From TrEMBL:
<dbReference type="InterPro" id="IPR001303">
    <property type="entry name" value="Aldolase_II/adducin_N"/>
</dbReference>
<feature type="domain" description="Class II aldolase/adducin N-terminal">
    <location>
        <begin position="22"/>
        <end position="202"/>
    </location>
</feature>
<dbReference type="InterPro" id="IPR051017">
    <property type="entry name" value="Aldolase-II_Adducin_sf"/>
</dbReference>
<dbReference type="InterPro" id="IPR036409">
    <property type="entry name" value="Aldolase_II/adducin_N_sf"/>
</dbReference>
<dbReference type="Pfam" id="PF00596">
    <property type="entry name" value="Aldolase_II"/>
</dbReference>
<dbReference type="GO" id="GO:0051015">
    <property type="term" value="F:actin filament binding"/>
</dbReference>
<comment type="similarity">
    <text>Belongs to the aldolase class II family.</text>
</comment>
<protein>
    <submittedName>
        <fullName>Ribulose-5-phosphate 4-epimerase/Fuculose-1-phosphate aldolase</fullName>
    </submittedName>
</protein>
<dbReference type="GO" id="GO:0005856">
    <property type="term" value="C:cytoskeleton"/>
</dbReference>
């Protein structure tokens, strides 16, 4: 986990919620810094520690670069606000994220983006192919969900969960990237890796016929990846480094 401030929580707010708010706000700023924002759309959500069915989501109308700890909206899995906020919530984000938070106990943080590379690969027949270092790590681990239009209908929720299955990253066909993890850092890392895999695939296919990594090499690669992981758990060091970077640029996310 990134080092966050020990500011006193707002009145009526637990220390755990304040820490969660700051971590999620930092994540929004990191995503924007890396070019993963899409006007005022897309979403990253995080369960509120110790509050069953409660999660934080970005206020509809604010750019990722404007999100702060205090502006995040706390809602339940039925869409009810659980704290005072002048902001609304994008229904497309609520329908998608609430379904996963409701049914997946390990989906503590969920991110959905419309990056150019992510949308391009999601729109490509065959999807992500094992043609680069990052994609080889995801071989056999990416789910797919067919495009049904903007995700504002509750009826699509069960199909999203069914499409995901036991995987924790999914390419929404013709739509974009969806990843989730047990922590904000793990979710960030999964998105970073999948985004890089898509970017490199996009560049490779623009030049000619790619070389696919053989199945036996993929097995060895996936077996040994943990040996290259930094201490602290999946994504912890990566995310902390990015938080330090945005903190030097603009620390207002902490507010």
């Amino acid at each position: 986990m990134a080092t966050l401030s020990q500011d006193r929580p707002q009145t009526g707010m637990s220390t755990a919620e304040q820490a969660a708010r700051q971590e999620l706000a930092a994540c929004y700023r990191v995503f924007d810094h890396l070019g993963w924002s899409e006007s005022i759309y897309n979403h990253i959500t995080l369960k509120v520690p110790g509050e069953e069915g409660a999660f934080l989501i970005n206020p509809f109308g604010l750019h990722f670069s404007e999100v702060t700890a205090s502006s995040l909206v706390k809602i339940d899995i039925d869409g009810n606000k659980l704290s005072e906020s002048p902001h609304g919530v994008n229904r497309a984000g609520f329908v998608q994220h609430s379904m996963f938070h409701r049914h997946l106990s390990d989906a503590h943080c969920i991110a959905h983006t419309h990056t150019t590379a992510g949308m391009a690969v999601a729109s490509l027949e065959g999807g992500l192919r094992p043609i680069n270092f990052y994609a080889a790590g995801f071989a056999g681990q990416v789910a797919y969900h067919d495009f049904e239009g903007v995700t504002v209908r509750d009826e699509e929720g069960p199909r999203l969960v069914a499409s995901l299955g036991q995987r924790r990253q999914m390419l929404l066909r013709n739509h974009g990237i969806l990843v989730m993890g047990r922590t904000v850092a793990e979710t960030f890392l999964r998105h970073w890796l999948l985004q890089r895999a898509c970017e490199v695939q996009l560049a490779t296919l623009s030049m000619g016929q790619p070389i696919e990594v053989p199945a036996e090499v993929i097995a060895v690669h996936q077996r040994d990846l943990h040996m290259a992981q930094a201490p602290g758990g999946p994504g912890a060091a990566d995310f902390a480094a990015m938080v330090r970077r945005i903190d030097r640029i603009d620390p207002s996310w902490r507010d």
